[in-house]
Amino acid sequence: MTTSRTILIEPNRLFRQGLKHLLCGTCFEAGAEFSTVELALSAGEAAEVPGLVITGQPVAIEADLQQLRAAYPTARIVVLADDLSVDVLRAAMGAGADGFLSKNVSPEALIQSLQLVMLGEKVFPTNLASMLLDISSAPSPLNSVRGLSPREQEILQLLVTGASNKLIANKLGITEATVKVHLKTLLRKIDVNNRTQAAIWAMNNGFSESSGAPTRSLQLVSA
Question: Counting Cβ atoms within 10 Å, is residue 88 exposed (0-12), middle (13-18) or buried (19+)?
């Protein structure tokens, strides 16, 4: 993977320096660091456009991330958060974040997550699915969304839990080949490119798998 210019935004100086040291020597080595989003944006015109922005959870997360997204439209933005509530996660993703990780993530998982983000994936905490299942959600919009068939709706619900094609096939009593056909049609209907984006879309549209706890998380790496 080629090196992309990275900027760090984090008010805690000790944490920021530790993160900078951790990234040193990797393709994510920090080229600039700031204590606030405001300082980063004020330096934006004089600084090289970043490929990656790593920021501690902003106080006004939606407003700050929207400003970062407007200033750096081509950059990947990753939030390192103290608060891993689903509401904060949804606010971050809705404001343009590409990744949302705990500040307690291991160094190895952080680097792997950043690699996935730079490849275009959306990365979340490993406990996302179980967090979603704990929410008392409004009535599901399954019957009115994008003309999805009942089988496509079932598959979309299982994608939220991070289920593989094999697991989906086993749960629904169909073949993996059939799952792949349904998944291809499903991606086209909701206008996304891959199963990770489909799961994100499902999360944002009230889908959940209600028959039990998920077998694995949506995130592709563990914290």
Answer: middle
